[in-house]
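Format notes (please read before filing issues)

Several people have asked whether sequences and structure tokens are stored in separate files. They are not. Every record keeps both together, in the order shown below: the sequence lines, then the token lines. Line labels are part of the format and must not be stripped during preprocessing.
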Amino acid sequence: MSLNIRGYAAQSATTPVAPHAFERRDPRADDVVVDILYCGVCHSDLHQARNEWGNSQFPMVPGHEIIGRVSSVGAGVSKFKVGDMVGVGCMVDSCQHCSSCAQGLEQYCLEGGATWTYNGIDRRDGLPTYGGYSERIVVSDKFVVNIPDGLDPKSAAPLLCAGITTYSPLRHWKIGKGSKVAVIGLGGLGHMGLKFAKALGADVTLFTRSAGKEEEARRLGAGHVVLSTDEAQMKAVANQFEFILDTVPNPHDLNPYLATLAVNGVHCLVGQLQPLDPPVSAGAVISGRHSIAGSGIGGIAETQEMLDFCAEHGISADIEMIDIQDINDAYERMLKSDVRYRFVIDIASLAKSA
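Then the structure lines:
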């Protein structure tokens, strides 16, 4: 029997996210049914709900930073049991046999891409996927992660997107003790980037356009703060960084930052999906054998590694809890950067909309 679910959905690109009842699929033998406790609010939820990327399917139940407790498991599931605290991130399936999936890089699945937690199509039954702004979710056990006992489940929710999006490139480019790393932007992604780079042993600098963020940046792990609009400050850090983690979600000029890369340095984009504007100077790339790179989320094994790392090092997201009835106000506040640093929905508040 299909599961009847309460949630919040966008019915179109121009209507508010509002109460919505829908059906989850029948649990399969390899499925885990999770009662959702908390769901983080990602900027991509806003992009998708308003069809800013042009691929939205409605009605849409957003949410891909999901924390909950297992309420039942299929007959073929052995990794999880009823009562376990678990997480579900940005994807709920992949082909599981292409070269990317074989390497644990399900996010880069070569056969139609990963199946996203919402605004996707289930590759087995062709039905739409619905996210975590809801009371329950049904997920293949291969795409569920354990939440370690040492992590507060509320502040762990954003780790499943903002956390892994910043952890994965730092690990891929082997950032460690003594690495000179810069983070551009101090938002939901940027504040996690500072925490991870610091915990990995790097010498960390924050690039920001906003004066007055030094104390906050140092609290989060930055050893240095550079005002990117100040030419003298930018010149003072020329040729320094082996790795720049660029978390800015909108088009911005990369050229000033490329001048701060050391020889063989990498400027990695994790926030921006639009075309680069203004154009990048090829000379700035060639002259120092610099690379402009990009990175998405991490695979399931790496996501579990990240959560275990967070528990070991006492890392979590800085959050503001909200009721789900306040989600549209939260979106407007996100547009104004009026959040430090991630909203998390208390899904128990759904009962108020009953």
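For reference, the curators noted about this record: The domain at 3-160+317-353 is CATH 3.90.180.10 (Quinone Oxidoreductase; Chain A, domain 1). The chain has eleven helices and 17 strands.
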